[in-house]
Amino acid sequence: MGKIQDFVIENKIKPKECVYHTWRDAKNKKLEPTGKIRVLVPPQSDTAMVEYTCPECKHEAYTEQPWKRPFGVKCEKCGFKVTVPKMKAEAKREAKADNAKSD
Ligand SMILES: [Zn+2]
């Protein structure tokens, strides 16, 4: 892990300017949050940069693929599909946090 972080720093990318940026727990087959997935779609880009720790086999990898929703990557080791769930409640919370900052 760290490749996306390096990219953000090197290119001076501001989180707000990104098409999409998230970092959250990835769930295994038993719905336990044993993995991680980070997704960054840089400004004006339609390619998603993805870093993940597979919740099933703990394999860590970096990959790039076309950005689309719903978004998911297949673990290159075990084939488990690591998905980014679309959560309405979370989107609302993020919007609130943004508003609070600009006040
Ligand atoms: Zn795996």
Describe the fold and architecture.
With 103 residues, the protein is α+β, with helices and mostly antiparallel strands. It has one domain. It is built from two helices and six strands; from the N terminus they run αββββββα. It has helices at residues 3-10, 88-102; strands at 20-26, 35-41, 47-53, 60-66, 71-74, 81-84. The strands form two sheets. The protein has a four-stranded antiparallel β-sheet with strand order 1-2-3-4, with no helix packed on it. The termini are far apart. The mean pLDDT is 88. The site of zinc ion has 8 residues, from loops.
- Largest sheet, described in full? 4 strands, antiparallel
The tally of helices reads: 2
The tally of structural domains comes to 1
Total beta strand runs: 6
Amino- and carboxy-terminal Cα gap: 34 Å
Residue runs with pLDDT of under 50 for 5 or more positions:
none
Strand order of the largest sheet: 1-2-3-4
User: Cofactors and ligands present?
Assistant: zinc ion
Percent of residues in helical segments? 10-25%
